[in-house]
Amino acid sequence: MTLASKSGGRLIAVAGPSGVGKDSVMAGLNGAIPDLHLVRRVITRTPDLGGEDYDAVSVSQFEALVEDGAFAVHWRAHGLYYGIPITIKYQLGKGTDCLVNFSRKALAQAAEIFPRFVVLNITAKPETLAHRLAARGRETEEEISKRLAQADKPLPTGLKVIHLANDGPLSRTIARGAALLQPVSV
Ligand SMILES: Nc1ncnc2c1ncn2[C@@H]1O[C@H](COP(=O)(O)OP(=O)(O)O)[C@@H](O)[C@H]1O
Ligand SMILES: O=P(O)(O)OC[C@H]1O[C@H](OP(=O)(O)OP(=O)(O)O)[C@H](O)[C@@H]1O
């Protein structure tokens, strides 16, 4: 048994404002770091809108999953429901590091649930966010405005946080992110 499997894997919660590049950085880190598990979220979003790979469900299906205890953590944002499958605990128990796109408002709750919890806080300038959300084309202009209005939501205090700027080329951010996450420091 390795040291990692004795103490369990890290839950690496990727946080930051809409358009900052959370999904893009996660996909890159998944390619750059061997054995990292990219967590697939359950979302009440229309299927196949691009970006992350997610399980699309209806609100009533989501509520039934909550009732069944299918989620380790869940939250509501942008008029949608998001759930992190309870099976993540199996991955962590095996000693596998798990990378998951998180809400800033769910971080404090998750820190109490997961023993090896670290936040990967992605940042970028406000003008970068606006440009990227428009270019992504997944949301309407009204939805984009609402997301931008929440851009400077603070992180809770007292958490282990790794800060990663994503204003420059994505490849550079991924290389820096991979270096910051390895060797294991939490
Ligand atoms: N470093 C970068 N340089 C240029 N475009 C980027 C960069 N990072 C992400 N993007 C683009 O910005 C948009 C938003 O990225 P995304 O990963 O969906 O962000 P988030 O998940 O934080 O909302 C996407 O179209 C993505 O391709
Ligand atoms: O509380 P906040 O930190 O503001 O986060 C709210 C939600 O925004 C993101 O979702 P999603 O990936 O659907 O949106 P995004 O790609 O525009 O960030 C994030 O994963 C949360 O689910």
UniProtKB/TrEMBL annotation:
Q: Where does ATP bind?
A: G16, P17, S18, G19, V20, G21, K22, D23
Q: What class of enzyme is it?
A: transferase
List each copy of the Guanylate kinase-like domain by range.
9-182
A Gene Ontology molecular function term of the record: ribose 1,5-bisphosphate phosphokinase activity
Annotated keywords:
ATP-binding, Nucleotide-binding, Transferase
Q: What does this gene product do?
A: Catalyzes the phosphorylation of ribose 1,5-bisphosphate to 5-phospho-D-ribosyl alpha-1-diphosphate (PRPP).
What protein family is recorded? Belongs to the ribose 1,5-bisphosphokinase family.
Q: What is this protein called?
A: Ribose 1,5-bisphosphate phosphokinase PhnN
**What organism does this protein naturally occur in?**
Roseobacter fucihabitans
Protein encoded by which gene = phnN
